[in-house]
Design brief:
The protein is α+β, with helices and mostly antiparallel strands. It has a single domain, classed as Alpha-Beta Plaits. It contains 2 helices and 4 strands; from the N terminus they run E-H-E-E-H-E. Strands 2-3-1-4 form a 4-stranded antiparallel sheet. The chain is globular and about 35 Å long. The two termini are 20 Å apart.
Length: 96
């Protein structure tokens, strides 16, 4: 079952997003293994990222082996604190 994640970085900026994603995503511009969809943009109180993974297990693997270790080490020019996170099992998906 697909799994969705919403990250809200309060006070986050486009520049921080670009530095962070350049560090945690593959350098060839593809998505991490299992990630099906990625959108991001400014929100009233910072920066929001929404991703869809093919499974919760693949999300957790990316989070635990790539995202959080990178953030804990610090990403030059990137987000300075972990996001507020909401995750959910996707039961309905409609594509245009």
């Amino acid at each position: 079952m697909s799994y969705g994640v919403i990250h809200q970085f309060k006070g986050g900026t486009k520049e921080q997003y670009e530095a962070s994603v350049a560090t945690v995503h593959p350098s060839d511009g593809t998505l991490p293994p299992g990630q099906l969809y990625h959108v991001a943009g400014p929100s009233p109180d910072g920066w929001t990222i929404v991703v869809v993974y093919d499974s919760k297990a693949n999300w957790e693997n990316f989070r635990d082996s790539v995202l959080m270790p990178s953030m804990q080490r610090g990403i030059k020019g990137g987000f300075t604190a972990p996001p507020e996170e909401a995750g959910f099992e996707i039961v309905t998906e409609v594509n245009a």
